[in-house]
Amino acid sequence: MVQRQHKRGGVISAISWIPKGVSKSEPIVSDPPSKDEIKKFFSSLLTNGAESENEDAADADQIAQPDALYDDITLALNQLDMEHYDDEDQGIQLFSSEIGEPYYPSNDMDPYIIDNNDDDSEELEDMIIHPTDSVIVCACSPKDSVVQDMEPDIGDCFNHLEVSILEDSELNMYSHHKITIPSSPLCMAWLDCPLKGGEKGNFLAVGSMEPEIKIWDLDVIGELQLPCVVLGATAEEKRKGKKKSIKYKDDSHTDSVLGLAWNKEYRNILASASADKRVKIWDVVAGKCDITLEHHTDKARIKLECK
Question: pTM of the predicted model, to two decimals?
């Protein structure tokens, strides 16, 4: 398994190169998530974090409730009042030194600003993915040093997929966007099976410390993105004291997913290898497991190749 130190202290557990020309030139901005989706997402983030730090149920009881998290986020956004962020206050000259220095309420009125659209144009240009660009996705997990940073990048505080662009013409590489994911990623596999219709798609299957496999749309960006497909998962979890009983969905893995491979010929087929000693063959369109191989005597951590 590839594990490298991230520049801000996290760990890169897997890397995937996306074929040139398959990404949309202008990614789609996802709709804002609903309250229920926010609650579910943050609940999974907090639950995974609590289990990794301490299995004691008493600590889990101290986790903030999703309702409270949603209310805090909503309150913070209301206080920022981002809808009126760019409105100018004509009555207050914040940047005047009061010694005759002119203050211009608008950049359009300031003669010293030649082109006030340069920054916006540059940001828009960075979001465009050209057919000659190489797209690289890194699966990243944070470390305590990142979370405790005084001014951390919010994306670096959680497990995430970092989508980067390498411009071949200039050998310039930069981060395009991040996808926050609930649990520590371990492996990835790109696939073009059209899960949303059409002839081809641009999707990434991710295996993690959890028993499910989540498939993400790389052509969609948003503050809180949800997976297109989830294969397997925990159906029910109960605690009694320090004991925990887990019931899994039908055909789900029961331990971490350590390897993934996509079949280029039969594009709806995905294979997965798990620490539960099983290899599974999935139909990603139907969202179900077709075949389960149980002949392994140890964790199935081999590199898979579907041809």
Answer: 0.70
